[in-house]
Design goal:
Neuraminidase; 554 residues
Length: 554
């Protein structure tokens, strides 16, 4: 027997202890529920990520298919044009013969009506018989014409039907996004048009670096409105748990950089990135006047490839020289003359399928194609004003289909040729272009520098004029003889403003963005800049024509 109060207190302690135990269990359950909810959210995020990736893949496939469709349409049109040309010539011949026949008939009928019986007896009909024979012969070649058909890629169709566009695979990764980390300048700061870099390290729950083959790393750079504000996003998997990430910001201001692994943000993501306006700082200059290798005599055109090699048309020395991106001389080819591989005023230049090199040979009125080592391969053009001919061509470029775009300056035209040199189409002409020096394609537009009109003119894919910007002058957005064009990594248009001694940068709408340079001989200044090209890291190469050198700007 014990007092009731003692028994009650003892029981109360036991109950309170049980309550605390249950509270701890409840707290554990709540924590578990939160974890389960987070896992469900993570799965939903993974679903969204998979759907987005699948949609992106399908969109890319559709773009490729559309591009292939356009290529087929263009090929069939080119084939039709090629097939129609001999028919057109034959038709002209037949029409000419028909005219001769009808003229002969008309003259003979008149002669018969007006002649006496003695004159009619002496009339020679051999001419009419010969004309009829020639017409029959002219029409006898039609059966030899080929037939153009579309051959379906049934293998592609079957693979798409049977294999599908991809598959869903489930894998279990030890990688934990919240334990992974991203470091580098690109997580906090970037400059418009220059490469920003960062390194991602993936880690497991114990915060040890780990690597899973199927880990999905995604990066998004968006502004305050949620719009994408970067181009050329590249994720390089080093296969050791580290990923080198690079991007090019295309607008100033504050952006959010989201770095995720398997749909989960890494530690500190999204990062706040301050994107600064670009200041064009000269970082390298090479070359001086002369004829030895590595020197220049009026360098005009520049072009770059993915290996960061810089090709220069050395106009006065009648050759092409190629350098590394640090200005080291690599090789050269060409000499004065009009034979294969020789030049008489080489100007425009472009890497062709990133292997071959196309060069405009102005005073020989042609375009020559070389291997990347300088071996002559082929040519097209020839002096004249026919479609397949050229008259003092200046700049050239290569479009998204691998065709060569040539500024046929004296004919006041822009002409497009196939990789084999076959004429495809043209636009411009009197009233549209005054003195075209260069033309580039950007998406569905052709952009032309018209030196004679001191402006930039924009045409659609069919060659229809859309708009122009700029006028003669030395203010922002004004030109004095604009020369060659390029598109930088921010998607802006870079223009060599020849007689103003500077390079100007514009949005594609024509809105002025920046300029750099100025007339002079100091580093960072120009005397008649002609051509620009953009290296893979965003640096800009400029041919400083009258200073006989090449300059590179960060």
């Amino acid at each position: 027997m014990i007092p009731l109060n003692e028994a009650a207190n003892e029981r109360k302690l036991r109950v309170n202890s049980l309550i605390e135990t249950k509270k701890q269990e409840a707290l554990q359950r709540k924590t578990e529920i939160i974890k389960l909810q987070n896992e469900r959210i993570k799965i939903q995020a993974q679903v969204a990520s998979v759907e987005k990736k699948a949609q992106s893949f399908v969109d890319d496939m559709m773009k490729i298919i559309e591009a292939k469709k356009r290529k087929i349409f263009k090929a069939v049109k080119d084939q039709a044009k090629e097939s129609q040309e001999p028919l057109r010539r034959k038709q002209c011949e037949v029409e000419h013969e028909l005219q001769r026949i009808e003229t002969a008939i008309e003259k003979t009928e008149t002669l018969v009506k007006r002649s006496t019986s003695a004159e009619i007896v002496q009339l020679d009909t051999k001419f009419l018989e010969e004309v009829c024979d020639e017409r029959e012969q002219a029409c006898s070649d039609f059966e030899e014409l080929g037939c153009c058909i579309f051959v379906e890629n049934k293998t592609l169709m079957n693979e798409a039907s049977i294999e599908g566009i991809g598959s869903i695979e489930t894998f279990f990764s030890k990688t934990k996004g919240h334990q992974s980390s991203a470091e580098g300048k690109g997580t906090s700061e970037a400059t418009v048009g220059l490469e920003a870099q960062l390194v991602l390290t993936t880690r497991n729950a114990e915060e040890e670096r780990c690597y899973e083959e199927f880990d999905c790393v995604t990066v998004e750079i968006r502004n305050d409105l949620g719009d994408d504000c970067a181009t050329e996003m590249i994720v390089q998997d080093n296969k050791d748990g580290t990923y080198e990430i690079s991007y090019f910001a295309k607008e100033t201001g504050t952006c959010q950089a989201s770095v995720m692994v398997n749909g989960e943000h890494v530690r500190g993501s999204p990062f706040t990135v301050q994107v600064n306006a670009r200041r064009y700082r000269p970082m390298l200059s090479f070359g001086r006047k002369g004829s030895f290798v590595g020197r220049f005599n009026w360098p005009w055109g520049v072009a770059v490839n993915e290996r960061k090699e810089i090709a220069v048309t050395d106009r006065g020395n009648k050759r092409v020289q190629i350098f590394s991106s640090d200005g080291t001389y690599l090789r050269s080819f060409g000499s004065k003359g009009d034979q294969e591989g020789e030049f008489n005023d080489p100007l425009g230049i472009a890497f062709f399928n990133n292997e071959n090199i196309a060069v405009t040979d102005r005073l020989n009125h042609r375009v020559q194609i070389f291997s990347e080592q300088g071996e002559y391969l082929s040519q097209f053009g020839g002096g004249g004003n026919l479609d397949h001919q050229l008259n003092c061509p200046w700049g050239l470029s290569v479009d998204s289909d691998g065709n060569v775009i040539v500024a046929d300056t004296e004919n006041k035209l822009i002409k497009i040729f196939s990789p084999s040199g076959q004429f495809l189409r043209k636009f411009g002409g009197e009233g549209s272009l005054v003195d075209p020096r260069h033309c580039i394609q950007n998406e569905n537009y052709f952009i032309v520098s018209d030196a004679g009109d001191h402006c930039i003119k924009v045409f659609d894919r069919e060659g229809t004029f859309l708009y122009k910007f700029g006028k003669e002058g030395d203010g922002d957005g004004e030109f004095r003889g604009p020369r060659c064009l390029s598109i930088d990594k921010a998607g802006h248009l870079v223009v060599g403003d020849y007689d103003n001694g500077r390079v100007q940068v514009f949005q594609l709408s024509g809105k002025f963005s920046a300029n750099f340079g100025g007339n002079g001989i100091k580093i960072g200044e120009f005397r008649r800049p002609t051509s620009t090209a953009v290296l893979t890291d965003g640096r800009i190469v400029v041919s400083d024509f009258s200073n006989h050198r090449i300059q590179i700007f960060e």
